[in-house]
Amino acid sequence: MNAPPPAASSGPDLRDIHLPPEPSWWPPAPGWWLLAVLALALLLAGIWWWRRYRRALRQRRQVLRELDRLAQQHQRDGDAAALAGELHQLLRRVARRHDALAVQQRGDAWRQTLARVPVDAATLERLLALDQQIYRAPTAFDHAAAIAAVRRWLQLALKPAAWKPVATERADA
Questions:
Q1: Which residues cross the membrane (predicted)?
Q2: How far apart are CA 66 and CA 123, in angstroms?
């Protein structure tokens, strides 16, 4: 038997199947945009935290250097009243960062402000003795113990997390 002749095609000539082009890398999918924004936010927060930490560290070092300078000055001139006054002013300046009224406080209010930093009772008493030492006639003054007490208090006070919250007074009406 003879094969029938090829039929004349009545339709278009078909070409081979072509795949669509690869997707472009730009613009990225919404998930990548979200990831980029999150990474940028984390980077900015990290930079902010790092700068804040460095500033606080610089301030701590500056205050402790000032304390060392006061101790060296006392070794040179031996003026106990001047040392007590300068140490007292240093305490008030640091306390003012956490309590604006610290520069005006006297007596029990000043004790409460100093006690907001968790130090032992002996350290607290030495700090309170500085206030009295300023106004007394020259007496025996343990400057090494006073400087050590101020240093202990300052090392804790210069860390904002160490401060206890202000005790609010109850209004008994």
A1: 31-50
A2: 19
Give the number of residues written for the chain: 173
Question: Per the confidence metrics, is the pTM higher than 0.85?
Answer: no
Q: Is the peptide bond before 118 cis (omega within 30 degrees of 0)?
A: no
Question: Considering only CA atoms, which of 81, 103, 92, 69 is closest in space to residue 153?
Answer: 92
Name the residue ranges covered by the structural domains of the chain. 57-162
- Tens of pLDDT, residue by residue over 6-32, are 666 677 887 888 888 888 889 999 999
The DSSP result for 14-80, as a single string, is P----PPPPPPSSSPPHHHHHHHHHHHHHHHHHHHHHHHHHHHHHHHHHHHHHHHHHHHHHHHH--H
- Contact predicate 91/153, CB 8 Å: yes
